[in-house]
Request: fold
Amino acid sequence: MLKQNLQQKLLQKLSPQQIQFIKLLQVPTVSLDTRIKEELEENPALEDLSLANMNEPEEQYPDRDPDEDYSSKEEESSDYDEFNIDDYLQDDNVNDYGSRYDQNGDDEDDRKEMPIAIQSSFFESLQNQLDLVPLPSDKEYLIGQQIIGSLDDDGYLRRPIMNITDDLAFSQNVMAEDADVEEMLKVIQNFDPAGVGARTLQECLLIQLRKKDTTDPIIRKAMLVVEDYLDEFTRKHYDKLERQLSMNSLELRAVVNEILKLNPKPGDTNEVNSKQQQVIPDFHITNNDGVLILTLNAKNAPELRVSRTYQEMFEDYDKASQRNRQMKEAVQYIKQKLDSAKWFIDAIKQRQQTLLKTMNAIMVYQYDFFLTGDEKNLRPMILKDIADKIGMDISTVSRVANSKYVQTEHGTFLLKSFFSEAIQTESGEEVSNKEVKKILEECIGGEDKRHPLADEKLTDILKEQGYNIARRTVAKYREQMNIPVARLRKEL
Reply:
């Protein structure tokens, strides 16, 4: 028997406008311009005000009598027609929302293009060297090309020789043996930079050492260390190396220094690191005689407006006395695009307000740090502290802090780096764990590298300064700062 039940549920759903705002809020400045361009391409009812003003034609005067003398009027209005460079440079840059933002040198008219150095890439350099090698046939040349194309960004050949032989057979119809590929690999390993084409770190270092003066006893011992004692060298078991190779400390130091001069990643020598994303600050904080001034990056305040053409089209269609099916579809399409444009402009405006509100709360909370730049002045601060101050959800603060940067006179910082946990000192005062990390960094930086400080010793130093922290906590902070253990910090 079918039973019917009546249930009442309370659900919370996000509107399309809220979803759009959330997505825009977490977009950093470096990606905001791309996101706006995508929206401008998808929605013809949305316009970039700066581009729209450039495309608007100059006003014409079709009713003007060509025979009439306007010289006197033109002389009277010469003050208006004359171009004033000071007025041009002192433009207030007021956008549609009536807000003013300090451009901080980000204005499109003031931006100067930096010259870009033209240089060959790592793979182009290898290809140029291959072109200069006298080879017996085209077969060797194709094998060389295949090997160069199989190198990774570090300059290593990670693929097995057998796979390269198969690739030559299937993709280029070149029948080669593994020995042919091995022989051609030796040719490429003689190319610059030294160490290119190696299959392991050990082979890479040996290739570089063999290009040095092998009659030098230090070079020969360095080759011996790399070939037979690389594991002991990387683990810094220097005492074992002295015993095994019958060397004194001075000889071992010379051998170690020679090995440290080698490049473990030869592919990075000529290659410009294009993977590194350019950091564009979202905020600027300036110090005006002890008073901090917060401004939003001009790129976060784009000048957008709803297209006048689409507005006029909608008004004309809406006033039309007769409407057919096609006209109704056109009106619906235009209304949809107009609403979408308004939603996007409102989302951008709300994004600006949220960014400024959140950053202002962070600036006030960490005022001493922004004045001095000393990490010891950072106060313990969690997401909830800022969320309570601005009356917003923790997730909103997290989205703002996760991928946004602020530029100060002490450097450019990720907002996320200002949040830290609290640690209680012996006096009962709460300090940021970043203060403890700064002390650890200073202790390790000033230690005797021949006898580096162990975690237990670092723990004792912190306790002497009033920070009662366990050894495992010191080890955790050290790992977070990418500092190796004491044994690996040892130097001769």
